[in-house]
Write a structure and sequence with these properties.
alpha+beta, 152 residues, 5 helices, 7 strands, 3-stranded antiparallel β-sheet, single chain, 36% helix, two-stranded antiparallel ribbon, elongated
Length: 152
């Protein structure tokens, strides 16, 4: 399917392969099929825990418990959907865009030093250096070195 359907879109279609050619209802969320209703009546499930769910305002499928625990939003920079625990303090920017902004804040000589380490086969040394420079986790530092490698 080439067209990406909007979140929460419900398609009413006739399925000749189902029992007696019954009508089938397809529910789309996050641009993909979330649930199929008809013949066997499949109930939509929470994308976090798997319990019975209803779509959020942004089309995420959450059960009542997870709707209380999690928040979903779209990044202001790239539009990516983010699901995060409500108790975690955050901005309206995803972690990737946040780290890209941190990369932009590095001096050119720092970026060049990290790139050089990666090019010379010392990726882990570059990750350790990025971690120290930016005060981020190892996973985020690995993302930073990968982004810098892409930019060169």
């Amino acid at each position: 399917m080439e067209d990406v359907l909007p979140d929460g879109k419900i398609i009413d279609s006739w399925n000749p392969l189902s029992a007696k050619g019954a009508r089938t209802f397809l529910l789309f969320g996050r641009g993909m099929l979330v649930a199929c209703f008809g013949g066997g009546m499949v109930e939509p499930r929470c994308e976090v825990c798997g319990k019975s769910a209803t779509p959020s305002l942004l089309g995420s499928m959450f059960c009542a418990d997870c709707q209380e625990r999690y928040e979903d939003y779209h990044c202001l920079h790239c539009g990516q959907r983010v699901v995060i625990l409500r108790e975690i303090e955050h901005s309206d920017v995803c972690s990737s865009c946040f780290l890209r902004a941190r990369i932009d804040g590095l001096e050119e000589r720092q970026r060049a030093a990290l790139r050089q380490l990666v090019k010379s086969g010392q990726r882990f040394e570059a990750i350790k250096m990025a971690k120290q420079m930016l005060g981020v986790s190892i996973g985020d530092a690995a993302f930073v070195t990968d982004e810098l490698t892409k930019q060169s």
